[in-house]
Design brief:
Elements: H1 4-52, E1 57-58, E2 72-74, E3 77-85, E4 90-95, E5 106-109, E6 117-122, E7 139-144, E8 148-160, H2 165-168, E9 175-180, E10 187-192
Parallel strand pairs: 1-8, 6-9
Antiparallel strand pairs: 2-3, 3-4, 3-7, 5-6, 7-8, 8-10, 9-10
Length: about 190
């Protein structure tokens, strides 16, 4: 004798599983599309900033008298500069408003001119997705919106559970990067001088 209730339950479970699998596949495709379009927008933003600012030239921090970093608005976002990591072939725009951490690395506090700039971002593609490969001695360039280009070296790397003030100011650093790992919810603190 055939148990129709059991057969209908199996069919319903198979159908539900198929729908969930299709939804997961759709979400994966949308996520990948978002990453690709984000990378394209990032490249376009960097190109637009380079087309507006003077040709970057090496600068010495002592030449700057003012502490306020000039901003440049591109696509309704104010940027304070560009971070360049030659080892990874990356140039990333740095937004002035920390509320933009979902799109770009952002200034959290300080200034490059007073050697206390703190920049935050996540490990998502188009931000600090190089975090697993960065090491002490790596070179980083920061170019402000007036075309002044400053050179830094990674001097310290630390993993912490919380990016509080004590963690961010642990080392005397001209620039501190804090990188939130979106998968493990820990932070990498990178000190640069």
């Amino acid at each position: 004798m055939i148990n129709f209730k059991s057969l209908n339950l199996k069919k319903a479970l198979i159908l539900a599983g198929s729908v969930l699998l299709a939804a997961a596949l759709l979400l994966l495709c949308l996520w990948q599309w978002g990453i690709n379009s984000s990378a394209k927008r990032l490249k376009e933003t960097v190109e637009e900033i380079y087309s507006i600012i003077p040709t970057p030239t090496g600068a010495v921090l002592e030449e700057k008298l003012e502490n306020t970093m000039p901003t440049l608005s591109v696509n309704k976002t104010d940027f304070i500069g560009l971070l360049e990591m030659p080892r990874f072939g990356l140039v990333l725009p740095v937004a002035n408003d920390f509320e933009n951490t979902t799109k770009h690395p952002c200034k959290f506090s300080g200034s490059a001119y007073t050697k206390n700039l703190i920049i935050g971002a996540t490990t998502q593609k188009g931000q600090f997705d190089f975090f697993r490969e960065i090491s002490v001695g790596d070179t980083l360039f920061f170019t402000d919106m007036q075309g002044s280009r400053y050179t830094y070296s990674v001097t310290d790397l630390r993993f912490v559970k919380h990016a509080d003030q004590a963690a961010l100011t642990y080392k005397d650093a001209a620039i501190t990067l804090f990188i939130k790992n979106i998968y493990s919810f820990e932070y990498l603190i990178v000190s640069l001088n």
